[in-house]
Amino acid sequence: MTSDTALPPAPGAQAPAPTTETQRRWARQHSIGTLWETWGITAVLVVLLAASPLLSSDFLTVANLQSVLRESAYLGIVAAAMTLAVMNGTFDLSVGGQLALVSVTTLMGYAAGGTGLAALVAVLTGMVCGAVNGALVTAMRVPPFVATLGMLFVFRGVAYVLTQDGPKTLPYSEIGSPFVKIGGLNIAGIPLPFLIMLACYGAVWVLLRRTATGRRIVAFGSSPEAARFCGISVHRIRMLIFVVIGVSVGIAALTYISRVWTADGSAQDGFELRVIAAVVLGGTSLKGGKGTLIGTFSAVLLVGVLNDLLVSRGVDASYQRVVLGCVLITALAIDGLRTRFAAPGSFARMLPRRRREAPAP
Amino acid sequence: MTTAAPERAVRAADPRARLSRAIENAPLAVPLVLIAVVLTVATDRFLSVDNLTNVVVAAGIVAIPGLAMTLCIAMGEFDLSVGSTVSLTGAVTCTWIVGGHPAGLAMVVGLLVGAAVGLLNGLVVTKLGVTPFIATLATLVIVRGVSLAYTGGRDAIVSSSTLKFLAAGRVFGVPMPVVLTAVTALAAWWVVNRTRFGRWVCAIGSNREAARMSGLPVDRIRTTVYVIVGVAGGIWGLLISSQLQKGSGQLGLGFELDAITIVVIGGTSLLGGRASVVGTLLGAVLIETIRNGLNLLNTPPAYQRISIGLLLVVALTIQALRRNAPAEALDDV
Amino acid sequence: MRTTLSTLALAGVLALGLSACSDSTTAEGGKPSGKASGDVTVGFSVYDMQYEFFQKMEKGTREAVEAKGWKFKLHDEKSDENEMVTGAQALLDQGVDVLIISPFKPDALGPIVAKAKQKKIPVIIDDIGGGGTPYDAIVISDNADGGKQAADYMAQQVAANGAKSKKVVSITCEPSAVYAARRNQAFDQQIKDKGFQVVTELSGNSKAEEAYKIMKDALAKDPDVAGVFACNDPMGVAAANAIKDAGKDPVKGIVTVGFNADPEAITAIGKGGLSATIAQDPAGMGAKTVELAAQAINGGKLTYDDESNREVFQKVTLVTKDNVAQFAG
Amino acid sequence: MSPSVDTAQAPVLEVSGLTVEFPGVRALDGVDLDIRAGEVHALVGENGAGKSTLLKVLGGVYTPSAGTVRLRGEVYAPRRPSDAHAHGIAVIYQEFTLFPDLTVAENVYAGREPHSRWSRGIRYGQMRAGCRELFGILGVNIDPDARVADLSVSEQQLVEIAKALGADGQVIVMDEPTAALSKEEVERLLDVVRRLRDEGRSVVYVSHRLEEVFAVADRATILRDGRLVRTLAIAATDEDKLVRLMVGRDIDSVFHREAVAEGRVVLRLDSVSAGRHLRDVSLDVRAGEVVGIGGVAGAGQAELTQAVFGALPLRAGHMELDGQRFAPSTPADALAAGVGFLHEDRKHAGILPDLSVRQNLTVTVLDRLRHGFARLLSRQAEERTYTEYGSRLRVRATGPEQLISELSGGNQQKVLLARALAPGGRVLVLNEPTRGVDIGAKAEIHALINELTAAGAAVIMVSSDLPELLGTSDRVVVLSRGRVVGVLEGQDRTEENVVVCATTGRRIGVAA
Questions:
Q1: Following DSSP, what letter does each residue of D34-72 receive, concatenated?
Q2: Is residue B245 less than 8 Å (CB to CB) from chain C?
Q3: What is the separation of C-alpha C273 from the centre of its chain, rounded to a whole number of angstroms?
Q4: Residue B128, class by beta-carbon neighbours within 10 Å (0-12 exposed, 13-18 middle, 19+ buried)?
Q5: Does one domain contain both D242 and D329?
């Protein structure tokens, strides 16, 4: 353990070693292992898309693709924010309740003041929900798992109370409203919800990769104890993460409710689990520190495409569950086995040897 | 909040220790008593024998999987799949009864199915190294799908007195579910506080790496705990099917959260290491009292959700504040 | 490696899933282009195929479509409003000539009907309607009449049982099920007019487990309850079980009435475990929607029972021990 | 067990050609070793020499990549810790393997609880009695029913020892068992070790404290950089020789502290108390000065450094930085004031394993690397920081994008040092700066400390490595039970004085 030579970064480097810094960097960034880690689920998505004509003749039509993109947006938007949380080593189980509550208040906002107020109410409600979660986790020191589990009940309950007299609904007479356009409009053939989702991924990417806060989020997820000694305040970043998730739910709810038009306390039961499943399927480690946005993005689309294919093949709903559950467990089992039997990082080291822990200093 | 026997055995004589133990369970006992008083005043029927029996039976039924879940959580893990197990067990048992098999055999087969789900969870978690949260989340979805596919959306309607006895029968005047719960609770108390297995479960929750280093059969214990939760979920399924006299793919939706909630409210730390059997029982009674009270007051279900959610948050805030060490604030579950 | 394996696994489970469903009821739809006259495709979006009620409705609809020599495309909403909107719109995109929909959330019909209007595809609603949308027609069970019949029967049976008490319990579906709520509203109104009092009205969220507990609590609160009406049969039968477990008789002691005529209710009525239920005719409703669809496609005028609301009623029938034999099987 | 083997001479445990590889690191390289019955065999070597790795192979935690271990002549290849237990090998690890939520008795008997065959109930009475007996042997009084979390560190260490003794192993392996013990407890433990030997058992004894090695061991095996140096009889050697074999050269040449002109006081601690241990510590650190902090493990070093870094709140007293009141409530405050910090636990509280070298290096100074209207991080500024510090510390990595977890320990340590420097390098708080670092990197790190102080930095350095502590600091402050017991300057700065202060609490250079 006291050998002072840097490790070869990749299988390629064990051959005649790259000489210049650029070459080395290229070798590292393009090692097979790294490529798979970042783009793996995307590759699966591409393969599935390529195979889709064999599975369903209806799949590769413009209308159907638009439908898949439009439908995936609200899940994808929240999954982007959730990726931040999971990379930080936490998660938010209350997003389903938030989505129901925000949808209800958004429709109330619309009834009171039209599209502008609805959008404002959506984002504000989400922000408040996130701040409540954040306050519980930071000020009250409740573990995030339980805090957000409890708030899942509370948010849904509040939504139920607000819809005692029946679900909140967008009346049919509002069919021409700009509010409906949020969910329905296509710009250059691309559905607006998908464009909003792209913008959200852009924003989260910038936050994650180009800001100090983003770096701190990942650093903390990688090693909470080390992060403490790097001057990172867990409370500040946790608060921010929960508020970002809340805002993302607010935006997602806009793309959702402007398509679905009705909401009550039961809306999107189990949403939180679908979001976390997408993030994990995208390769983000639940232990924190590791993950990619592109993985989440592709996983969201993968689930959307898979779902669409299963539906259009007429697969029974009960089998659809089994298939989606198996996909999730398979992806994770592979990930689990990989980290269990191989050291992280390099593809070459993955195969022959069993994993051993790094020796204690 | 542990009810560890050795401490009690040695320190029961110490009045201070006894007092501090009493205070430890106060976060549960206080609201329980308060709610009971309020309900006694607000309704004239709360203290009736019928009503209290209802509360105890309902609490007992949820306590059985809750006690198994207590083991799982003491081990620092979760099982989210238990609601689906409820559905599948009931569906299999009732379908077998409808198919003309003896009810006893059908019930055993149902429990075996529950055990199989638990075994699947255990193997996925230990052998494939998947995080319990996600592994059991996936089995939640898969088992629900299997249950729906197995029943084909048709309820299996039975009228079996053997099955009925499980939920509605009485032994010396005591409702059967209460008997079952009492037996389970005694067994759970014994296992948690008195047996090697129980201590090993807490040891794994306390420090898994140390458990491995101490030569404990960690993977076997973890798998066993998942099987126990699976069987307990199966018993839950049998009791529900016994009450409703049917098996269905629709039953047990969201039950996993009920089971986890009573454990957590009962004071078993999500960080693992300690299990509170008495706490889980009290947690079950508390939740069911609230539900019953709100029903007696004709309150819409929305308020039931809110009150249970708030209770969960308050219980955990109290726990977190009592823990009070800044370093532990970093511990995430 | 991870991805290679997950690709393989994905392909594997996909194949598994697909082969498991090769006997699916779906018929592959033809392309809208090149459609000959008479080559009509009917799209049917169903509430949730996991319920027997909707399985019957799907059967009735499909058989009526096939009898006409048309093509049939099914979409399962899986009790999800998002799936409902997306899937129904996808059916429209796939070029169906008429859309029949049994909506999970009628309030979410707006975007679907809007799209259909744009494509000039007629929309027929089955079972649960409303949302103020300009659909072409709705076939609807007469929920209010069902509730009324339940109340009348209950009043009559309570008298026959010789019970003095005028207390009844009303168990509702989830608050969002507005059309099912009509059953309880009509029941409550009618039973009050008969001099009874609704002492407990709670939502069992359409779930049997919850209804069981509610009934137990209701009995503890008012042991002298004379009757109970539940918004659907799983809850009705669960309430009857709770009554039995409390040592009372769900026919002779407390008049128990459900709604739907699900097999479990029919069985229970036959065995004296339930007083009555209100039968809907899902298969008949399905057939009726196809008739309306035929009228719409041919450009003819649709025949309504209630012109102003474009409603076509499907009669509901009270099922009691006397006529239960007709509904068995 | 084959009773025919002559226990007096035949080795109980034979290790031959043992090699253990971790990704990129060869922690053990072809080590041969034999342990006889009835001997105490010391295993010595510097940090990172491979001692702990060897023990973990014996304990079934690591699987060797090559080589064999024979136990009483038969191949012994444990695949998990329980295999070691089954073969009668008991290991006391350096990191505690205790269960904080369980009682002392439950810990001591973990995995082999006596229980009733019929009811499966644990026999707590028997366990309590057994514990009392074991603690009687160790001469301590610990309540078998106390929760381990409530015990002091030294009591926990004793529980750990009792756990291994209770296992009744024929081979008992102890990794730094005395690190947290008081002098009397150490004496008693050494007695126990001698008694175990007299009973015919074998003890493998790993310790940094050579006086303990000379007090109990019969033979010693010296490891260096994962390789076997030599096995020799204790009677035939002395401390100096042993140290030379461990280090591989004379000690004097290793450390070289250049004389630096002392400047003004940069950091002043005035009667500071913090954490569970630290009491009433006053200390001045001047520009250009290295203040070494010594003492036995757990004497308050960690509390002292963390208090300065704002990671531990002060219970009493106050601090000054450049004459201004300095009250950091978080590490972020300290970093903003230009205080750099190096944690002693590199693996758990140092590196951010999933991040690149560049990201690890810049994490403490992110606020300074933002630019433009949106205050986004500047990649160029980060690269510049990497180039500056990376080359200054001679970090050997394939580039800024390499993951830090792929670097060797020494290079990781250099990156962390660079991280500590980046906030400004005015005050540096370094915990064990060369722990687990090879000799070459060690020298580089020492040279770097010289450079920094020459440039005016004030350094507080904690080290458990006595030669390093004395060789690299201008002044050594010795802590004992959280109090300053010695301030050693000039000629007083000797190993003997440090050891005397640390272990006896006698005061030198400080008023009573």
A1: EEETT-EEEEE-STTSSHHHHHHHHTTSS--SEEEEEET
A2: yes
A3: 23
A4: middle
A5: no
- Residue B138 to residue A329, Cβ atoms within 8 A: yes
pLDDT tens per residue across span D271-311: 999 887 788 999 999 988 899 998 876 788 889 999 999 98
| Tokens 């990649």 belong to residue | D379
B11 → chain D, closest CA residue: D145
Banded pLDDT at D61 (limits 50, 70, 90): confident
Span C249-283, pLDDT tens digits? 999 999 999 998 888 899 999 999 999 999 988 89
Which DSSP string do the residues of D150-176 spell out, in sequence order?
GS-HHHHHHHHHHHHHHTT-SEEEEES
DSSP characters for B16-41? HHHHHHHHHTHHHHHHHHHHHHHHHH
* CATH architecture of the domain formed by B27-320: Orthogonal Bundle (1.10)
ipTM of model: 0.79
Asked if D409 and A1 come within 8 Å (Cβ–Cβ), the reply is yes
Residues on chain A touching B316 (C-beta within 8 angstroms): 142-143, 146-147, 150
pLDDT in tens, D329-344: 999 999 989 899 999 8
D34 lies in a domain? yes
Q: Which of A2, A27, A231 sits opposite D331 (nearest CB)?
A: A231
CB contact under 8 A, A331 and C133: no
Please tell me whether residues D298 and D180 are part of one structural domain: no
Evaluate whether B192 touches B70 at the Cβ level (below 8 Å).
yes
Q: What is the pLDDT of residues A160-209, one digit of tens each?
A: 889 877 788 888 888 888 998 888 888 888 999 999 999 999 999 999 99
Question: For chain C, which domains are there?
Answer: 41-135+282-312 (3.40.50.2300), 143-280 (3.40.50.2300)
- At D79 the pLDDT is 85
Q: Is A161 on the interface with B (CB under 8 A)?
A: yes
Give the range among A222-226, B182-186, D154-158, D187-191 with minimum mean pLDDT: D154-158
Rama region for D493: left / alpha / beta (φ>0; ψ in -120 to 50; rest) = beta
Same domain, D39 and D62: yes
Residues D298 and D411 in one domain: yes
CB contact under 8 A, B134 and A161: no
Domain ranges for chain B: 27-320
Q: Does B153 touch chain C (CB under 8 A)?
A: yes
Cβ proximity of C237 and C244 under 8 Å:
no
User: Is D258 part of a structural domain of the chain?
Assistant: no
Contact B253, B83 (CB under 8 A): yes
The total number of structural domains that make up chain D:
2
| Domain hosting residue A231, numbered range | 58-332
**How many domains, chain A?**
1
Distance from CA of A225 to the nearest CA of B (A): 8
CA gap D426, D339 in Å, rounded: 6
- D331 CB near a chain B CB, below 8 Å? no
Residue D123, domain CATH: 3.40.50.300
Distance from CA of A13 to the nearest CA of D (A): 10
**D97 contacts in chain B (CB < 8 Å):** 207, 209-210, 213-214
Whether C contacts D, i.e. 3 or more CB pairs less than 8 A apart, is no
Chains with ≥3 Cβ pairs under 8 A against A?
Answer: B, C, D
Q: Which residues pair with C72 in a beta bridge?
A: C42
Structural domain includes residue D6? no
Q: Tell me the average pLDDT of chain D.
A: 84
CATH code at A191? Answer: 1.10.3470
Q: Residue C261: its chain B contacts at CB < 8 A?
A: none
Chain A residues within 8 A of D441 when measuring between CB atoms: 4
- Label residue D512 exposed, middle or buried (CB < 10 Å: 0-12, 13-18, 19+): exposed
Domain limits for position D89: 11-251
pTM of the model: 0.82
- In chain A, what residues touch D334 (CB-CB under 8 Å)? 231
B159 in contact with C at a CB cutoff of 8 Å?
yes
Query: Is residue D220 assigned to a domain?
Result: yes
